[in-house]
Amino acid sequence: VQLQASGGGLVQAGGSLRVSCAASGRIGYYSMGWFRQVSGKETEFVAAIWWSDSRTSYADSVKGRFTISRDNAKNTVYLQMNSLKPEDTAVYYCAAVLRANYGLSRRDTYDYWGQGTLVTVSS
Fold it and tell me: Which has the least CB within 10 A, 77, 85, 89, 99?
């Protein structure tokens, strides 16, 4: 499956932004994740959504502010980001793994990655 992330941009601190990840094929059997990377730093887990029951998991740094969701009919996963902070500035990547129920916060769990979309939060 090929993934295409979009929706990044420049937003002021406290604002909101929604990034999307469109897949080339059906994602119903894929667990999906969002990660982010600041230049020169390691890729960081942001959020994940399970394929089986759409349960979700979040990094502590975004819990309560970000929401991951999926629309299997549109083969798209979303990351709604509210109350954005300058430290949320990063390139955001979506990722997919077939029928995985464990390790969704780990980068090496995923088999497919999108190209990334840049989110910049100004102070």
Answer: 99
How many CA atoms within 13 Å lie on the side-chain side of 23?
A: 26
Q: Report how far apart, in Å, the C-alpha atoms of 70 and of each of 12, 20, 41 are.
A: 26, 10, 28
CB 33 within 8 A of CB 98: no
pLDDT band at 15 (very low <50, low <70, confident <90, very high): very high
Contact indicator for 58, 47 with CB cutoff of 8 Å = yes
Residue 113 and residue 80 in contact, taking contact as beta carbons nearer than 8 Å: no
| Neighbouring-strand partners of residue 80 | 18, 67
Q: How many helices (H) and strands (E) does the chain have?
A: 0, 11
Find the helix or strand (DSSP H, E) in which 32 lies. Answer: strand 30-37
49: Cβ–Cβ under 8 A, 6 or more apart, which residues? 31, 32, 33, 55, 56, 57, 68, 69, 70, 77
Q: What is the pLDDT of residues 2-13, one digit of tens each?
A: 999 999 999 999
